[in-house]
Amino acid sequence: MKILVVASFNKGRFAPFILEQVAALKEKGCEINFFGLHGKGIIGYLKNLSELKNKIEEVRPDVIHAHYGLSGLLANLQRRVPVVTTYHGSDINDKKALRFSKIAMRLSAWNIYVSNKTLEIANPKNKYTLLPCGIDLTDLQLTERREAKRQINLSENKKYILFAGAFDNAVKNAPLAKDVVSLIQDNNVDLLELKGYSREEVTLLMCAADVFLMTSFSEGSPQVIKEAMACGCPIVSVDVGDVQERVEGVDGCYVASTREPQELAVLLQKAFRFQGKTEGRKKMITDGLDNRQVADKLMSLYNIVVKS
User: Is the pTM of this model over 0.85?
Assistant: First the structure.
């Protein structure tokens, strides 16, 4: 089956989770082509329409898989090839973006939502599936904490809290994380910013960290939570996106009932007391979120769309 993946290329690359999903689809025998979108907002995206139509004429895909609502809307401005659109959260949680996503939902042959919360907001009537993006499970994720600290030059005598993003990303709400850490009266605790690292380095940081902390204002189905779980890293998070569902039943992982720094600080102390790796990796497999499992589900959806 020939799939044309349509997604933003504004950063000069496709998002890693898209590339990893595509790699799993290729293993299943799919032929994948890419069309990268340049520009911001609906006007910027519309400027890509002519080139997209040329790409479709060139590769003649069976299905277009668009990532994010605006990509889905643009992809549906041609009606020759059926479009599957995945909505990742920001295209649903933001009211302005939701207006365009709603149009894409009506036009798409199938819609994929990555969390129950985004599904509830979108409130589709048909042609939809709840399917979070998967993650790759690797041997590197099995690295023990002490060895991971050694490999990335972190002190064995310190406790490290890995923040779920860059401090300057407003959506990630770094001020709350810093307030929480300030309540822990321990000079041997450091808050690490997740910014500027390679994929391998991120994995080692997640293996080395004593706790992974998420304080975001909004999320869809955050990949970093799944990746931290695959590394067995204890997690403390506000109730955002599908985090509650992902970590449910996993010892060493905690979701706060409020956004109060005091509650989050208490949960951090609990996570510090957790010894060893969590069973997060096993939970990812149970939830069907290994990328190979997700690829099987996507193949089934593509077949439905092609035959309809």
Answer: yes
Q: Kind and range of the H or E element at 235? A: strand 235-237
Query: Which residue in 66, 69, 67 sits closest to 92, CA to CA?
Result: 69
Please write the tens of the pLDDT for every residue from 135-147: 999 999 999 999 9
* Residue 179, φ and ψ in degrees, nearest 5: -65, -40
3-state secondary structure of 305: helix
Instruction: Choose the weakest-confidence range: 102-111, 127-136, 180-189, 282-291.
Output: 180-189
Cβ atoms of 136 and 127 closer than 8 Å: no
Give CA separation, 58 vs 33, 48, 95, in Å: 10, 15, 36
**Pairwise CA distance, residues 259 & 253, whole Å:** 16
Rounded CA separation 159/205 (Å): 12
Task: Give the chain's radius of gyration (CA, Å).
Answer: 20
pLDDT bucket at 49, cuts 50 / 70 / 90: very high
Q: How far is Cα 270 from Cα 99, in angstroms, rounded to an integer?
A: 42
Residue 120: other Cβ atoms inside 10 A: 10
End-to-end CA, the chain: 15
Contact (Cβ atoms closer than 8 angstroms) between residue 98 and residue 91: yes
Calculate the CA dihedral of residues 262, 263, 266, 267 and round it to 10 degrees: -140
What are 220-250's pLDDT values in tens digits? 999 999 999 999 999 999 999 999 999 999 9
Tabulate helix, strand, coil % of the chain (nearest 5): 45, 15, 35
Report the alpha-carbon distance of residue 121 to residue 139 in Å, rounded.
37
Cα gap 122→42, rounded to integer Å: 19
Tokens of 179: 């307030």
Per-residue pLDDT at 139: 97
Rounded Cα gap, residues 196 and 92, in angstroms: 27
Domains, the chain, in order of start with CATH, read 2-134+290-307 (3.40.50.2000), 139-286 (3.40.50.2000)
